Amino acid sequence: MSVPEPELPALPTRPDGPGLPDGLPSAAVVDLDAIAANVRALRGHAPTAQVMAVVKADAYGHGLLPSARAALAGGATWLGTAHLSEALELRAAGISTPTLSWLTVPGADFRAAIEQNVDVGVSGFWALDEIAAAAREAGRPARVQLKVDTGMHRNGITLADWPQLVEAALKLQADGLLSVVGAFSHLVTADVPDDPVNAAQLASFAGALEIAENAGARFEVRHIANSPATLATPESHFDLVRTGLSVYGLTSLPGRTPEEFGLRPAMTLLGRVINVKPVAAGQGISYGHTYTTSVDTEVAVVPLGYGDGIPRHASSAGPIQLAGQTFRIAGRVCMDQVVLDLAPGGIGKVATGDVAVLFGGAPGQPTAQDWADASDTISYEIVTRLGSRVPRLYIGSAGRLDG
Ligand SMILES: *Cc1c(COP(=O)(O)O)cnc(C)c1O
User: Fold this and answer.
1) For a pocket test of ligand 1, which of 38, 50, 54 has the largest count of ligand atoms closer than 8 A to its C-beta?
2) Residue of 60, 287, 306, 380 marked active site
3) Domains, the chain
4) How many angstroms separate the CA atoms of 64 and 274, rounded?
5) What predicted TM-score, i.e. pTM, was given to this entire model?
6) What is the pLDDT of residues 212-233, one digit of tens each?
């Protein structure tokens, strides 16, 4: 089953940070050692729980397999995905760590989930029926985890239907068709730790667990914490924490930096300056001329745009570092390019071929959070939506197949 994977490109770490290989317009440099160190830090934040590294959506844009392996090297003992296909991709690459896929879809290939030992999230009776049918065909029990809705009102079965779901699952377990491995829920507002909704959800979850345990369920893992809850709400940890954003060194807790929690951003987004030229005062820049130069200046063109996942909402706002200074994008973000007005401090200091840093983790660099603030979104979206046109290059050794 295990498929050999191409070796990751080796990229030297420079003392001044990761480099951009010649000839590339852009690259996202992902530090595998940062991912491993972040997982180690998370284990410290949740010492009584196991850490599940959430690697859905191509590991939040960082690359599924290298990120998963680095997280395992850091001590993650579970992996979490949304889609079943993501979990099966881990298995196809030879990763056998316990894995939960929670975005369960009618008609999915539950037989493959069973054969590959992937845990499937169950949020409704239909899923139990389909999974049990696949287990009957496969001739072995399916591993499932039951999801209860404690207030998010998204996926998960209602508290009203929870007792019957548990009962039906335990019956199928007694019949040898299911192994009921876990129970879980999801928090609404963990990034606002004082919001009373958190305490209400934790109480509902504890109540749901008690109902299930009184009915005879013996869960291996009970879990509700995401990254912000792992960092700020210890009473949410239960047996396992499902951490995504923090594995990649970012945090969504307002006003708190990753460094405060011992986390380091794993991704640095770089672009090559492809043009530097003079532009007179009073000239409009980029589509629609929404930005006008105020002095005689120079502009620099960086070849990243919304075709690469740079939000168009970051027009005249997104920060980019060049020559040790941070500039704001001048005018509209285009599909493939953005323009920087180098006035005043950058005039004469930037040349074609220089490397621009859109965001990273080193001191003084703009961050994914800065980009989120500039585009009215969250750092999750900044890294996750980075396009497939931007090559991911890996530095660090954690989890590499070649050691
Ligand atoms: C994405 C996701 C997580 C991870 O959340 P982070 O805030 O990135 O840690 C955990 N649980 C579920 C159900 C998710 O969908």
Assistant:
1) 54
2) 287
3) 32-255 (3.20.20.10), 267-395 (2.40.37.10)
4) 30
5) 0.95
6) 999 999 999 999 999 999 999 9
